[in-house]
């Protein structure tokens, strides 16, 4: 006779087995569906419906096993082969995948990029239009993907580091919508070949030092496009090469695991325990997922048969993860052949329906636009003097085109309008012109909007609060202004963190943070290693999670080390997600004049051309810098603030409202009014020009001096041209190379503001020499614009 408790155990065991069986079959079904999505998507590219495709086939089982332990609040920071991760976590659907493949600009169809990114570039929102952070703890989050290989690594460090801060900094406990006591993991995925990038190694080293909850999954398919692993990685194995990073009981470092990408049960067993350990202890881990295959090769741009041997191709067919999982299911009697065949057919059908639905949603509005165009253009053919043949052929060809694009409609409409410009006053032609203008503007908005934030998230909408000075305002060194400012800021804003080389213990090389680590704690104001790339990544990830990092590059010359994530990730983020994600990172650095080739850089042309999408602030002094920090911290936009390196020990008056006054962005300041010539500059050269103006005034030349204050944005109210209308002469001065920042300002005023209309003499630019600045005071004098240079150019202009 069976005892009641024994019977209950048997029933519970049977139910547990059924749940297990159901879960396994669901996982296999998803693997089959994702594989079919890859196969269908490749065909869509080859038939011309899509431009390019790169897929995750061969990685389905490993990604499903990983996704089982991806929880609410976690972040994914991966790359463009993670489609199965997106499907398994619910971040994306196959239909959305196809919409992105077709470049559908409707965010209801492609909610990750609105048609701006190629397939498998996923993103989730973090800030709403009212400036409120979403409850990230209740979401499965994905940082916006980008194509540069290993580009996801630096920001992964910051995403994981934020969890450490949320767990260890008491003042962050109140932000329960952003973190659940730091339990969140950053799941980072990367292809094996991309581990050769410096981004990977710097990130692994930093994560090992910081001990942050980062789970790095390396999908190893043996190749980097056509280059085999033996030419990529020391010892032919990234886990073997990283052995020195393995954590021991007496050291920091990484836990390292090796699994087979076709071994469903083995991966689930390892991942479950290992990921829980990361969550509990914040010890990072690397999972080397080996023996991954690529059934369709690298991408739609070529065939892997060109570089893989017959033996390798045969092995890949045998060790295909879906085939191996199928065999495992049968061997363990989890399903019979008939059940699996039916399941596979259903998965295939779902993928096909996703493709069909996505294509229909993409095509229907375009066909409607074709009909609208035809309805307006057809009557024009009947007008006297009209080119009926052109119109009728154009309409017929568009209507017969099974896969028209928006550009086809616009190009043909523009051609008809151009051909019939003699009839431009006819109401029918005017109607077509009006339709064309509206359609063009609408589509331009679809593809050219959201480079910057809007509404309350925009720094442009922060109210101006002037600096106040009273009878008790004292003169202090510039660095003391910043020190007092940062002290007040960190006292009242618990979300603000500062970090960088020498920022913590000694308070930065110019003493802006002197004594503040001791007051506010090592977590709030911290030192880092010499690793500019991941300092930027640390800030990016923290900003994506609701913190307000001030990430420091010690000298502007070293921004090049960290420029790639700022340009490819931060600056493009608003645009490429069509306003979905925000990254309110502030990069603090110092530059312009000092001593020597690598400590007096002013590469403003490089910065403004590579960082469109960020705000670029160039304060002339430290009071202005503090006001700009205040402005930026009230918005949700990324920015770089470049303090004047030789201004820290110059005396400035201390405002009484240091913590609350703001400097508006894009509003130049007229520092001195004049009538003979307008001189436009910024940063450290402002003081050079001010000194030159004294001598020029004695020589009878009245100069109007304008400090632009910010380069991105630049003079949003076009006020500089108002000065030019008065003086009819203009000189642009900075210390970038020729054709750099001065050329940019020249174009903004002379071309965009139509300043050329008010010129009596040719406009001038005065910049530094084309080479790096030489060392020493004489080197500075001959390498960068000096007082005598300014006087000489102005006097030449006055004599024309």
Would you kindly provide a written description of the structure presented here, covering whatever features stand out?
This protein has 800 residues and is of the alpha/beta class. The protein has four domains: 221 residues, Thiamin diphosphate (ThDP)-binding fold, Pyr/PP domains (Rossmann fold); 85 residues, no CATH class; 199 residues, Thiamin diphosphate (ThDP)-binding fold, Pyr/PP domains (Rossmann fold); 131 residues, Rossmann fold (3-Layer(aba) Sandwich), CATH 3.40.50. Helices cover 44% and strands 11% of the residues. It is built from 25 helices and 22 strands. The strands form five sheets. It has a seven-stranded mixed β-sheet with strand order 11-10-12-13-15-14-20, with helices on both faces. A six-stranded parallel β-sheet has the order 2-1-3-4-8-7, sandwiched between helices. α16 links the parallel β10 and β11. It is globular, with a radius of gyration of 31 Å. The protein starts with a helix and ends with a helix. The model has no long low-confidence stretch (mean pLDDT 95).
